[in-house]
Design a protein that fits this description.
The chain folds into four domains: 100 residues, Immunoglobulins (Immunoglobulin-like), CATH 2.60.40; 195 residues, Galactose-binding domain-like (Jelly Rolls, Sandwich); 119 residues, Sandwich (Jelly Rolls), CATH 2.60.120.260; 154 residues, Glycosyltransferase, CATH 1.50.10.10. It has eight helices and 35 strands. Strands 19, 20, 24, 25, 26, 27, 30, 31, 32 and 33 form a ten-stranded mixed β-sheet that branches. Helix 4 runs antiparallel to helix 5. The longest helix is centred in the last third of the chain and has 22 residues. The radius of gyration is 26 Å and the shape is globular.
Length: 624
């Protein structure tokens, strides 16, 4: 019997097969053993390049911890490939080895990019506009041995090669302050590229870049696309297909798609085969060419997990509160989209509206959505029936009302409508579970997990349904510890902390919403303290002091802001205070602020001590 096993080896808190996003990654693993009291006594990490040359070897090191072991070799280079292996010894001196685990680095610098941004300039940016489609043919003399797609968008993208979708990610590249950093993703597309003619295609949505209802055109006027496809052949030669000149674009059936307002899809404008080689694109226009990627804001590999379809559920019942009204009940609140089979004659309009609650008469209530229309429209194509699901919008809902089949003048009835609900959220792994003998407590726990699923959507949002869905720092920091118990949240929060740092003012005050699109309420007690509390929670949960190093300067700036703007260490009144308190007696904001000031200063002192900053550790312990 095997005495123990090495399980869950990770590079940079990422599973094998994912691209490495840091030049100096960390190593983590677990040890599984049936023998009671067994523990790791020593380990050895060996890293080799693709030719088998050793890049770094720790030798046998006597240590018991296996969380976030720091890289001490030369920094990895962009595109560098190789393997790493791990040997672990238990307390009895018995060893086990993982064997070689492949790794590959992504791009680390703007200078690695030769592509240019492209966009469709035929829309009026003052209004929600049709989503642009892009395509580019390229010819290969032979099959590639390796093909890597580096892709980003100002907005949202969905890419394909030769008609095959690239990956399972949605709402990518995600949301950041597009003026300060631009996330990109890396995909292995070797299996999709072949000898002869090939076609790469992409659809863009306005997303958080230039959509979102009342915040339209916040970062820019048009969604833009950036693509760098690198193909390597058996002789070592490399061919690059770059976004830039000679790309073609057009609009199609997506008449508009807005995160808050919903989507309008016109099946009559479908373009079958638009992303394949043989499609006739003579009527398409040349894509407008923008700036060089190398001159952009920093292009950074996406650290946090992308949004994906994590579940598919069926409605639990259909309500029929009045003539011609049918409402599908998901059984609970979800964040996601419907997938609906509809039918009728060509041109029949279907409308899908959403709500979290019902009126007493069982009709749909969604006044709490405020300015968000949260309505999807679909016009039937000429096939008689079709499946429809939105592409660049999502909804927070339990109930959905579908209108259209009632007036189709066909045999298609409510019994023919099929509904699936696709649950979307950032693709975090489950970390823990809870169950006890009290069913009310179990239900409370399940509700908490569902709240996390519904609100961990690229950023930690306050709600998934109305015209807000913002990354409120107070909500994030107060929930961070629970979040890490429920799901593996390190990379998710690491990305969010970049948003917090990018929104921090030069004087150290931290925004209440990150990414910061509201531009008010800086330095609010309990909200701004996310800058110290979240890094500390991540260190406690995952043992990686790199998160403290990455955020220490920003943490210190926040504590210094509090020290300088306090009245003898007593904080002034700030926004929110005892937020949403139902009692007529409210805790003074000054007391809350001073308590949080104490906590942040104490965290900073402990952080400084861990990082070997002894003088600062003494200083901020004194402040606390």
């Amino acid at each position: 019997m095997t005495p123990f096993q090495i399980v869950d080896p990770r590079l940079d808190h990422r599973r094998p097969g994912e691209f490495t996003v840091n030049a100096a990654p960390v190593f983590s693993w677990k040890m599984a053993c049936r023998r009671q009291g067994a523990f790791q006594s020593a380990c050895q990490i060996t890293v080799k390049d693709e030719n088998g040359e050793i890049l770094w070897d720790t030798g046998k090191v006597f240590r018991r911890d296996s969380a976030a072991v720091e890289w001490a070799g030369e920094p990895l280079r962009s595109r560098q490939r190789g393997t790493w292996s791990l040997t672990v010894w238990d307390d009895a001196g018995v060893s086990q080895n993982t064997g070689d685990i492949p790794f590959e680095a992504t791009l680390f610098h703007n200078r690695d990019w030769q592509a240019r941004w492209i966009y469709f300039d035929g829309n009026n940016p003052a209004f929600s506009a049709p989503c642009p489609y892009f395509r580019k043919k390229f010819t290969l003399a032979e099959d590639p041995v390796r093909a890597r797609l580096y892709i980003s968008a100002k907005g949202l993208f969905e890419a394909s090669i030769n008609g095959t979708a690239v990956g399972e990610d949605r709402f990518v590249p995600g949301w950041s302050d597009f003026n300060k950093s631009l996330q990109f993703l890396t995909y292995d597309v070797t299996a999709s590229c072949h000898k002869g003619e090939n076609l790469i295609g992409a659809i863009l949505g306005e997303g958080w870049y230039c959509g979102c209802g009342r915040r339209k055109n916040y970062y820019g006027k048009y969604p833009e696309l950036l693509i760098q496809l690198e193909l390597t052949f058996a002789d070592g030669s490399v061919k690059k297909v770059l976004s830039g000149n000679n790309w073609k674009c057009a609009t199609g059936p997506l008449m508009y798609s807005d995160i808050y307002d919903g989507e309008f899809y016109d099946g009559r404008a479908e373009m079958p085969g638009w992303n394949t080689v043989n499609f006739n694109d003579r009527q398409w226009r040349k894509a407008a060419v923008g700036s060089r990627a190398a001159d952009s804001a920093p292009l950074i590999p996406k650290i946090g997990e992308p949004v994906r379809q994590m579940m598919k559920i069926k409605p639990v019942k259909i309500l029929h509160p009045k003539p011609d009204v049918w409402i599908w009940d998901a059984g609970q609140n979800v964040s996601g989209i419907p997938r609906v089979k509809i039918g009728g004659s060509r041109g029949r309009l279907y409308t899908i509206r959403f709500g979290e609650m019902l009126y007493d008469d069982q009709t749909l209530y969604n006044l709490n959505y405020r300015g968000a229309r949260a309505t999807d429209h679909c016009v039937m194509n000429d096939q008689g029936t079709m499946w429809y699901e939105p592409k660049f919008t999502f909804h927070g809902f339990r109930y959905m009302q579908i209108d259209g089949f009632q007036f189709s003048n066909s045999a298609f009835t409510v019994d023919d409508v099929e509904v699936e609900i696709l649950v979307l959220y950032s693709a975090l792994e489950d970390a823990g579970d809870f169950k006890c003998g009290n069913e009310k407590l179990n239900k409370l726990y399940r509700n908490t997990v569902w709240s996390q699923r519904d609100n961990f959507f690229e950023i930690p949002t306050d709600c998934p349904q109305r015209d807000e869905r913002l990354g409120w720092t107070g909500d994030a920091q107060v929930f961070a510890g629970t979040a890490c118990c429920n799901m593996v949240s390190y990379n998710f929060f690491r990305k969010y902390l970049r948003d917090v740092r990018e929104a921090q003012r030069s004087d150290g005050a931290v925004a209440s919403v990150c990414p910061d699109i509201l531009k008010y309420s800086y330095g609010a007690a309990g909200w701004a303290d996310a800058m110290t509390i979240i890094p500390w929670v991540l260190y406690q949960r995952y043992g990686d002091k790199g998160i403290l190093e990455e955020n220490f300067a920003a943490m210190e700036k926040w504590v210094e802001f509090q020290r300088k703007s306090s009245d003898g260490f007593i904080r002034p009144e700030t926004y929110y205070g005892d937020h949403l308190n139902f009692s007529p007696v409210k805790t003074p904001s000054e007391l809350l602020g001073t308590a949080y000031f104490f906590r942040s200063a104490g965290i900073l002192a402990e952080t400084a001590a861990i990082l070997g900053k002894k003088r600062k550790a003494r200083k901020y312990a004194g402040v606390a």
